[in-house]
């Protein structure tokens, strides 16, 4: 028996049905059968394909027979290959026979109107909308995957506005269309058909809050684009014009994936028969989009812009530091951006305020700054000065609580691409500092951690940073690019390496060489004195145990070997229960390609050279890196920060396309 949704035929009057190109329509040949009929034959006019659809068994026409038995367990199915030029211009005829096949007992006629309806986006990820016959309702990861991609329209293309484009329900700039994903509705068929049938674009209630759709109607002025779907607008009856075969739309994302949003949204178009009192949906086509994730860039990516703040302290301005940054940026061929005091309100910790990343679709990519919830002197800088044309903005605020030090983005880093036990992370893994497991200490806010995890493409790893006074991961680790096959090294602060170096120098007869030599505002400490200082030794070995715990986590979660790690000499002391760097923390450096801006440690001078600087050079320069030691003692180190804390770098996006990975 044919399904209920099949077209029912009549012996008395012809039947009319609308048939969507490429979609099979079942025909109920049992609804009106002449008495005595035992078989039937079916034929179609040019442009109509007629075949048998079998439910359970494959049925073949009996040998030597021109007709099919009526009691066969199969249905008649028809389809059309092109849209009709006029109503009812395709025809299907069913003839019924008794025992004698030569004489028909009756005929049923079905007139078909073909209509070509399809909703298409860039599901092939080529940068162009191409019509496909495949699955548009499913989104697949990987190099053989498919599915359309949506950008969150979080930049500001309209210079007259102070807000991101996604806040506007009206198009404010034609350039904004480049940030949106095109969507094409094919609607070819006789104009008269659309007098009684309508096309309706739909979005679910949940998805309507996460996207907005604009319809393009003709010209190139802003008024030619109107919002048709989005918040408070879940359905739109398409205004098809006579003879129109395509209607173009543009889709923008309104929110990033997050704890309550997996990142998938869908749009559907329905062909609706509006003649009856109760409208009937004849056909639905659906396209699924994935909202592009926010992606961080590691130190191994080439630098494009170096950000630093101009500040003034009791001892004066940081002008010399700015000059050193200018030199470093020039060597690395990257632009220097200085945030003036009027904009930073003497808040120098620009790394803590924000993190640069990017979003990408096959047709467009642009950088996006993630504004931390710390909200100190620099709180307005990302929104007021960085948000702009093709530069997006995103933030997460902590509800019902004040931010802690661990919510600053010096506590946020990302590794280079790694492979861990056969699992590839081609965009690296995010690293965030937290408390020791189950200790109940300080953690990065859940709202930020949830956001980072929801992006899926850089699975976060939590490290133990709560042992530090400031509590940031950049106080004990960084990554540097290398020219060898590995492509990078992990640098870890190492009290053990520092104590070993000082022991070696003492045994060589340099025990009176002094730490902080050359600093007029800091008392010198000889190597002999430091090695005899039991508290300094105890505090540094405590720090070493904390770093060693992280070392094992990093080796396990990033698939690293000991040969991938370089130990950078560093001592720590404890102030109450938290650790601080004893001298400028050298791993807290800024990485600009092969040029490293390293805090000058003011180590013991031996044969006219700082032994700490010499040891670091010997470790890093064979890897193709250039070490530039920069004085940050008064302006940064004394305030519990270093060069990395006081700078920020926007880097080139990965050449690897995120949709080609499998999370």
Automatic annotation (TrEMBL):
Its cofactor is Ca(2+). It catalyses: L-arginyl-[protein] + H2O = L-citrullyl-[protein] + NH4(+). It is an enzyme of class 3 (hydrolase). Its main location: cytoplasm. GO terms for molecular function: calcium ion binding; protein-arginine deiminase activity. Residues 1-113 form the Protein-arginine deiminase (PAD) N-terminal domain. GO terms for cellular component: cytoplasm; nucleus. Pfam families: PAD, PAD_M, PAD_N. Residues 282-660 form the Protein-arginine deiminase C-terminal domain. Residues 115-273 form the Protein-arginine deiminase (PAD) central domain. Coiled coil: none annotated. Keywords: Calcium, Cytoplasm, Hydrolase. It is found in: Cytoplasm. Its EC number is 3.5.3.15. The active site is at residues 352, 472, 474, 645. Belongs to the protein arginine deiminase family. Catalyzes the deimination of arginine residues of proteins. This is Protein-arginine deiminase. It comes from Sapajus apella (Brown-capped capuchin).
